[in-house]
Structures are given as C-alpha cells and as structure tokens.
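Lecture 7 notes: from sequence to structure.

We start with a single chain of 372 residues. Read the sequence below before looking at the structure.
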Amino acid sequence: METDTLPRTPARSAGEDPLRAHLRDFYGRRLRTSADFETAACCTVATAESHGSVLELLPTEVVSGYAGCGSPIPSDLVGLRGLTILDLGCGRGADVFVLAFYAGPRGRVIGVDMTPEQLAVARRAAPEVASRFGFPAPTTEFHEGLIETCDAVPDRSVDLVVSNCVVNLSPRKDLVFGTIHRVLREAGEWTLSDIVADRRLPASWREDPDLVAECLGNAAYERDLRRTIAEAGFPYLWEVSRRAIPTEEVAKRTGDPAGCCSVVWRGVKLTRPETIGAESLPPLEPGCEDYGQIATYRGTVPTAPARLVLDRRHVFERARPVAVCRNTANLLRLGRLAPHFDVTPARRHFGPFSCVPAPTPAIEATGGACCP
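Now the structure, written as tokens:
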C-alpha cells in the first residue's frame, strides 16, 4: 500500500522529491528525440501505423520528441466526435493533437503534464495545428500539473481519459486512477497504454533514476496494478493488446531479471446499480458473468464497416450476433459505442461466462514474461 503524500500543485521548491526533479530534467532538457531512449520500452510504432497521416500534419518539434509504449487512441474513431478528452502526461502534445483531429472542431482535448519545457512546445504549436486541421480556433489546452490530482479539470467533466506510458512514472498510481474516476462522467471511458511487470521490481530497478525515466524502473506488478484500478472504482478491464518488452540488457545492468510488457487497457465508469429480476447488482463485476445477453454490431462505424475490434476477446462482425458477458454488454449499451450496437437485456444469471480470445484478433498479442 502506497502511503506517501503528494502536493496539490507541482512542487518547485528546493525540497522537491529527487526522482520527480530527475524526471522533469530528463523529459524537459535531456530528451530531444525519441532516439534518446536507451531501452526498448518506448516506441512510436503503434500510433504511427494507425495515425501516421495525422502525425504528418503536426510540427516537427512536436513529433520529434514523441514517445509511448503503444497507442491509447480508441479504434472506434467516429465515437470521439465532439467529446471532451483528457490526456494524462501529454508531453509535447502529439496524442492530444491526434485526438483533437478526430474529436473535430466541436471537441475539446486537455493535456496535463508536469514538464514546462514540453508544454511550451505544445502551446506554441496549438494555433498552427488547428489551422492545418481546418479548425476556426484551437480546441486544445495544456495545463502544468500532476497527473495524480489534475487540479485544472473539474469533477465529472470528461468523456474519455487517455494516457500513453506515463502512469508507470507515478509514485501514487492509486491517486492517478482515483483522479480518472473523479473527472469522468457517468459511462465515460479511459484507455491506458503502459508498462506492467511480472513481479514487484527489485530495488536495483526502482532506484535507478534513468531506468525509471525510461518507463521500466517504476512499472507496477500487474496484479498489484489491477487491484489498484479495481479499488479506484473500475472492477473490470478490457485488454486491447499486449507486447513483450526485451529486458535482458536491463537484467545484466542491474543483476536482477524481471519481465515487462506493454499493455493497452480500456475501462468505463459505471456506478448506477442495475435491477435484474429480484437482484440489485453493481453495473460492473470483477469477473465475466453470463446473463444470456447477445450483442450485434450494426456496422455503422465508418472506420470499421465490416468488423470492429473491442479488445483481444471481442471482435464483432457486422450483423453477426455474439454472446457477451454482462460487463461487456453494459459497456456496449451504456458507453460511447451504444449507437453502434444492439444489445439484448439481461435475462437471469447462468453462471460464469467464458471470455476467450477471439479466433481472428486484429491486434498483436505476445505472451512474453507477463501473464496473458
């Protein structure tokens, strides 16, 4: 259990936490391009492959320092139109601008970061990016602050929260997910791309400042992180993708082996109880439960007219009925995707639902050293 406290505003005094000061220096002054990373944890491949045409519209100084460990941008891009979106640890704003493109001129995208040098790049680029997108004015805003508190963001004001390889840097991941729960509206979603470990990392990893800055040294043990997320009010996760990260060189450097993966998870804030027959149930449960529900994709997402990939376990073909657990049924009928699915009501409890990976997943799913 993490018990240290954090200030409500970015610390800048001589007494600032040494690691936080190191991270400010690493990302604000030392990191010039993504090639400056020494480990394989951070990359830009996932976003570049899916959103390269949008990245090409961004100024060079924004893209040159872009790094992440996957892409937190949902594949159902049409569902982003007009949303208010928050990016935790936005850096120079690459993901913010990509999201702004899909959210359109009526959308709003907020970036929060603790590094003033990176925020300066993002703010400087905002007017030019809006012009290149054909927007009458910028739809982005950038705030200096901590992702654990996000003081500039009001309660229940955001439709979607994303973060790309930043939560691992936080010493208080419980506060990060508590803040995500605070700022999301009911049925709001979050998508996280980050690093998880197959064990609680040894001190040789955790006390190496550069290893922490490169998103490995402070990565959470996956089971601990899942528990933290559940305690914040998100009892169920949908895993979109998983990629093993080579850590052999780190093991040689530290003398301690550990396995790490880059994962993309999605979650939803649902808090209103649901009555099914004589039962009053929370909207989401920790496991997959069978209530006899069927989901049918309408094929109405323009970017996915034939098949929509929700996560590793759910690939929906147009007009094909698919049995789903109650958690997935509630995500599809109450969240952003509701206009694109027909979901039958819950009937009664039939026991555990076996959610198995889809037979033809359109995503990378490597096991590596982490549990699937």
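The chain has two domains: 18-268, 274-343. Keep this in mind for problem set 3.
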